[in-house]
Amino acid sequence: MGLALDSVVTSAVNPGAGPTAFTAATSGDSLTVRNFAASDYALLIALCRRGATSGFFRVRSPLLHDNVRGYMFTTGETPSLLAVPAEVGQRLQPQDALIAEGSGGAAETDLGILKIFYSNLLGSSARLHMQGDIGSIVKSLKPITVAVTSSATIGAWTDTVITTTEDLTHANTDYAVLGYITNVALGWVAVKGIDTGNLRVGGPGSINVEDTSNYFVWQSFRHQLPMIPVFNSANKGGTFVSVVDQAASTAATITLICAELSQNLPN
Question: How far is CA 215 from CA 33, 40, 193, in A?
Fold first, then answer.
């Protein structure tokens, strides 16, 4: 068992004034919280809404504050960045079936994305670290460019190998992903591979560089939890940039802001 960060995509077609049910948008995603031991915990640490027009998005459950509105926010920002304050998270119960709902335009598909941190998840062993683990062993900064195109099916993930556009990492070397930059707005940008427990560790696909270039460092610092993904270059062929969007086939250039480490870290 080990650490895990998961990104769950939900979507609704033509949600209108709402509330309209948002359902898990792609295979492998589920609004049911993964199972974990009573001695461990899970936190909803980020929510993101992506639509062509403004609207609300909410997550509710009888096990949250209330089952009427739950955690609900309305925003004109798309994708939304800080719907959940950076210093806190919403505690979740194992196997709770969350309900996602929202509003938006009458001629669009809208996305709602949840990011969940698990302190100890059966079957996972993601390499997630704090800034203090890597700060003194950064050898070089290395942006890694990956050209991506979101799925032709709106709301579905597209996984693109990180070596698709360039392949310049050093052999058997650990790289910490500090953040990312996208030149075109997307719903969500994530890293996925054996080093993330094959779950997607990501954040909103905003074009605001100041919000995303150090996204994982910033979240780890503010939450005081290990959230900086680290991958080894030996696994580059099975490490992906994952993107999702509320429009079909959105082409973008993703830049992973990575730090080459002078020594490999333990899991």
Answer: 24, 25, 19
